Amino acid sequence: MDAAAGEGGGGGFANYAEIAAHFNNLALAVLSAQDRIDSIVPYLISLLPPPFVPAPDADDSSNSDDDHFSLTSSDSEDGVADDRPAAAQTAQDDDGRDHISRLPDDLLSNIISRLPTNEAARTMVLSTRWRCVWAATPLLVDDAHLRAADGLCELRAVRAVSRCVAAHPGPVLAARVTRLSFDQHEYALQQLIANLAARNIQDLILFNRPWPLDLPLPGDILSCASLTRLYIGLWRWRFPDTTANSPAFPNLQELGLFHTIIEDREVDPLLAHCPKLKILSFAMAYSFPSCLRIRSRSLRIVVEWLCSVDEVIIEDAPCLERLFFESFADRRPVKIVHAPRLEVLGFLDLQLHALEIGGIVIRAGMNVRASAMLPSLKILAVKVQFSHATEAKMLHTLLRCFPHLQTLHVMFQSIGSRSPDSVDRADFWQSLGTCDCLESHLETLVLHGFQGLECEQLFVSYILEKGKVLKTLSVVCVDIEDVGVEEGPISGSVDESNVSSGGRSSGDDVVMEGGLMSGSVDEGDISSGGSSSSDDVVTEGGPMSGSIGEANAPSVGSSGNDMIYFCPAASCWSFQNAIDLSVEDPFCVLLRQARITYVAAE
């Protein structure tokens, strides 16, 4: 991630030579441009969808002749007893018959599809029956499975992948190439893509590494009409402006551009060639001259992840449901012109993002008109410095822009210099009044990075007081995957010594009478799978305080709703969750809840 941060500086790059010059000219540069790119590649690969078959560990590899079996071998069935899988050999040891080979073809094909690429190919030598099964099984190619990609020269490694595809007569289900450099092997690359297109490739991940980087992606990629998922990395993609022709990717539903340079004018024809595209992601990519403009009638998810762009414009996306950012570097406008179905937005960084809705720039404290509202939005995630009055006011203005908001995620940013207008007074928030979402829709408030500062506690108290239908207050526990609160009253601390999954709340019911309440979850109060020692905890009178880690927990004011739940949460914000439509809330997972009942003080 250090390398990613080093890419700040804004502006578009027309080619990788400009990127290299930028890296080499950094004032405090310690690494060369090549070293920086090399350090970025593993991070990019970690963002990719997981492989269908995990790569074998290096420690499990051996130096036997079988490890170097040729993917195009046509050895006969004679003398192959020692090459049989252990399971088949064990079966024959029982009664002298090969029971595995007598299984139906579909089961044998299922077995082969679960093997690494090289091991699946080796099943051809077992018998003519296995050879036919391998040929009929849709091929899964992963260069991480091939020994040649690890130990041999670059040319032989590229040829190993190409030979694997060429040797298989049937369809290719998926190909994952992330470890090869195609520099000086452009012909082999073209042949590989042509063979994949001829075999109706459906899922393709194609990276070029490590250096040099400014290789154009072959135009033959447009012939892969059967693709449903495509991720490309470290290429210069010169997409032709051929919108008048039939779509190049009529079946493509998921597209990821990783550290790839694509010109602004090429994005429109690219999307026009993908009439069924649902998921579009950019990871550390470059747009030239640095404006990302989205026009698509099919897209449901757009992700901008650590990219070098100066502006994001959602111009016409009638089906767009989710818009995600993981941004850095300079301030940039985010313009939402037409996205009537947008339901999830975040993380919106109030330091970096200048939001514009329907052609209206959203400013702190402005009077929000109907044309500047997005009634469809249900989940909002924002990064805020509450020590800055402008950002605090902007958050309140955003709540007015999203009148039907149901879940609000607030990530508390580190405190810098304080603004002249103090937000450490209760009257600051009271002067802002309420809004539609607080009156009738906001049900869940999730706090990320809560430090217990007075300005933060005042904000939480404001939401709890004005949130008439608020049901859940949650605090994200850092570095804890599964948390359950157990034993003791609401206050305590969350320590790893007692953390595990499936715990229950210490009190399923917490009754509060009058005063303020600040709850906390500390590591000492977490354990696995147990149940509460008491079902009801009654608190009367003054405030109740505690901490999360070393920070104070939020003060809880009197809510318009007489019952809410307090629960810890685990962060699940990641690139993969961002592009997964099955994940209801990609920012966190709420865990076991403790019910808090408010009784108005007399």
TrEMBL record:
Residues 103-143 form the F-box domain. Residues 436-513 form the FBD domain. InterPro entries: F-box-like_dom_sf, F-box_AtFBL13-like, F-box_dom, F-box_dom-containing, FBD, LRR_dom_sf, LRR_FXL15/At3g58940/PEG3-like. Residues 55-99, 489-553 are annotated as: Disordered. Residues 518-542 have a biased composition (Low complexity). It comes from the Eukaryota. PANTHER family: OS01G0598400 PROTEIN (PTHR32141:SF61), PTHR32141. This is F-box domain-containing protein. The lineage of its organism: Eukaryota, Viridiplantae, Streptophyta, Embryophyta, Tracheophyta.
